[in-house]
Amino acid sequence: MVPESDELIIHKIIAGDTGSFGQLVDRYQHQIYNLALRMVNHTEDARDITQETFIKAFRSLPDFKFQSGFRSWIHRIAANTCLDHLRRRSRDSAFKAERPPDFAGDLVENLPAPEPGPEERLIRSERQSAVKKALEMLPEAYRLPLVMQHYQGLSYREIAGALEMPEKTVATRLYRAKMMLREWLLGGDNGEVRTGENKAGGSFGRGVQAL
């Protein structure tokens, strides 16, 4: 059985079948949660942002314009909700972030050894830590499109629609984000993020090749 399209489900909801909204939640909740988690690095806040995103989407469905896809539209709502949260958090001096989840591992190349030795484990741990720190250092304007592309699999057009900017700007920000990561991971001018470089011939510069 072919799944109903987002557009058909939206038409049904607008026509009064509000229960169909659950299909959209099921279809996109993991993507939205993962986007929020990678932006705010806090599991409970990511859940709250996900819930808030779908509440906003449900309330705004009557105004949905079918020129753009629902996927891009819901990501736009999620992105704005994440940015609002980060702005509030930056004003809250009492905020204490929990230890960020280890999502940086998939940015780092897979080491071939099935059972790495102590030195390889140290290199991998340091490399993941460095990538995570570099990601957290990225300004929101660059981290958000990078997360959307690398973790959500959105196209340039979908990211442009979600962030309401030209595709050329998306391409520029993605390029700069990756260059900033590469610069920091290779040491840059100050070398703050560079850790464990060249142990056993390794370099953290390879950690961003997956991007």
Contiguous helical run count: 8
Low-pLDDT parts are 99-114, 189-211
CATH architecture of the largest domain: Orthogonal Bundle
Structural class: mainly alpha
- What's the assembly state of these chains? single chain
Largest sheet: none
The CATH topology name of the largest domain reads Arc Repressor Mutant, subunit A
Name given to the CATH homologous superfamily of the largest domain: Winged helix-like DNA-binding domain superfamily/Winged helix DNA-binding domain
Strand content range: under 5%
Basic shape? globular
What percent of residues adopt helix (DSSP H or I)? 55-70%
Averaged pLDDT: 76
CATH class of the largest domain: Mainly Alpha
The tally of beta strands, per DSSP, is 0
User: Which sequence of SSEs, written as H and E, runs from N to C?
Assistant: HHHHHHHH
Number of domains: 2
Cα Rg: 19 Å
CA distance, first residue to last residue = 35 Å
Which secondary structure elements does this structure contain, and how are they paired or packed?
Layout: H1 6-14, H2 21-40, H3 43-60, H4 70-91, H5 118-137, H6 140-150, H7 156-163, H8 167-185
Helix pairs in contact: 2-3, 2-4, 3-4, 4-7, 5-8, 6-8, 7-8
What would a concise description of this structure say?
The protein is mostly helical.
Key traits:
mainly alpha; Arc Repressor Mutant, subunit A; 2 domains
Explain the overall architecture.
It is built from 8 helices and no strands. With 211 residues, it is mostly helical. The chain has 2 domains: 1-93, RNA polymerase sigma factor, region 2, helix turn helix motif (Rna Polymerase Sigma Factor, Chain: A), CATH 1.10.1740.10; 102-211, Orthogonal Bundle (Arc Repressor Mutant, subunit A), CATH 1.10.10.10. The longest helix has 22 residues, at 70-91. Residues 99-114 and 189-211 have low confidence and may be disordered.
